[in-house]
Design brief:
With 433 residues, the protein is of the alpha/beta class. It is built from 11 helices and 29 strands. β9 and β10 form a beta hairpin.
Amino acid sequence: MMPTIELARSRWEMPRRHTAAAKPLVDDTVAVVLAGGRGTRLEPLTREICKPALPFAAGYRSIDFSLSNCVNSGLRRVGVATQHKPEALLEHLARVWSNVATEPQHFIAPWRAETRAPGIGYRGTADAIYRNLPNIEPLHPKLVLVLAGDHVYRMDYRPMLEQHCERGAAVTIGCLEVPIEEAAQFGVLTAAADGRIDRFIEKPKTPAEIPGGDRGCVLASMGIYVFDAAILSRALRLDALSATSRHDFGCDVLPRLIRDADAFAWTFRAADGVRPAYWRDIGTVEAYWRAHLELLDPARSVRLDDPAWPLPVAGIAPRLIVSDAAKRREPASNSLIAGGCTIDGTVERSVVFEGAEIRRGSEIIDGVILPGAMIGAGCRLRGVIVDSGCRVPEGTVIDRSADGKVPTELMKPLVLTGDVADQPVGDLAYAVA
C-alpha cells in the first residue's frame, strides 16, 4: 500500500491571487510536453516517426499546437520529453522552435530519456516527469505544467494557472465535457460545484454523468495538469518506489493526489465561456483523418493563420481554398494545400502536403496526402491517407462510397503506404477497426 503523501500545506507560498504587480505566474512555471509516445494506434503512420512529430495540417507537426499554446501564453521554459524515434522531432524543434529563447533563461529543449538513464526508456507518463526532475528542480519553479504532444487545440494556459493558485491546489486537471459513449477513451473525473475533484478513474467502463450538467456527458481529462512543484516532486518519488505502480499519471499518481490533497478541475470552454472549445486527441488513424477534414471549416476547428495566436511554420504556410474549383478554374476546392506540391488532377475536401504529386486526371476526395506521396494518373481515391513517400500506380480506384451507401461521416479511412505498385492495394491498405 502506498503511503499518504505529505503535503505540508503550511509551507504553501504561492500568492492566493495573481495581480499585475506580482511576478507573472508563467515566470514561475516550467512546462513539460510529453512527446515520447510510440503511437501504436496510428500505425503504420508512426512506424518510422514518433507521434508528436507526425505531419499535420499541410505544414506543421502534431506537437506544434501545445508548443504554440505555451509560447502564446507567455511560457518560455519548456522541456520536451522525447523517447521513441525522436530524430524527426529533434530536427523540427531545432528548425522551428529554437528562436523562442530570446533570454538566457528561456528555452524549448528536448529532454531525451537515455540522457537521464542510458538504455532505459520511460516506464509511463509519471516516470517521464520523475526522470526529468534533475532538469526541472534546478530551475526552482513553483508550478509545473504537464502537457501532451499530440493534441490539436488552442488554449491560453494563464487562467488555469491563476485558478490553481487562487484555490491553493496541489493539482489542477484540465478537462472538457464529452459524450458518455466516448468515456472509455479518457480519464474521467467527478467534481463538486466549486471544481473540487472527488474521483478520477482512467478509462472507466461505467462512467458517472456530470451532476447537474448536460445529460449524457462526462467530465474527461485533457491530459493537461498543473502541479505545485514541491508536491509533484514528493508524489513522483513515492511513486517511483512502488513495485506495483504503472508509473502513470492517470492510473497511479492522480488518484492518490485526489485522495490526499486539494485537487481541482479546470473546464476548457470557448471564448464565450459557455460553448465547449475545440480539442482533439489525434492518437488514432481515424481521429487523425477526421481532424484534418475539420480543419477545412475554421468555424469548427482551430485557425492556423490567426495573427493573435501565431503558429510557426517551417517554410510556406499552407493555403486554405474554400471556393468551388469549377467556378474559379482551380484544381482544388474546400481543401488545405501546402506550398511545393504538384496538382494536375482535382482535389476536393482534402489536405495535401509539401512535395506531394497528384498526376493528370486523378481525383482525391476526403483525402490526406502526406509529404512526398505520388498519386499516378487517372486515380480516384476517397477517404484515404496516403503515407509519406507512398507511390500509388495509375488507374487505382479506392472509393467505398461509389454506390452512395457510405457517407463521409460514417467512413473509416484507409492508409496507403509503401510502393502500391509492388503488391495488391489490399495488402497495403489499413482499415480502421
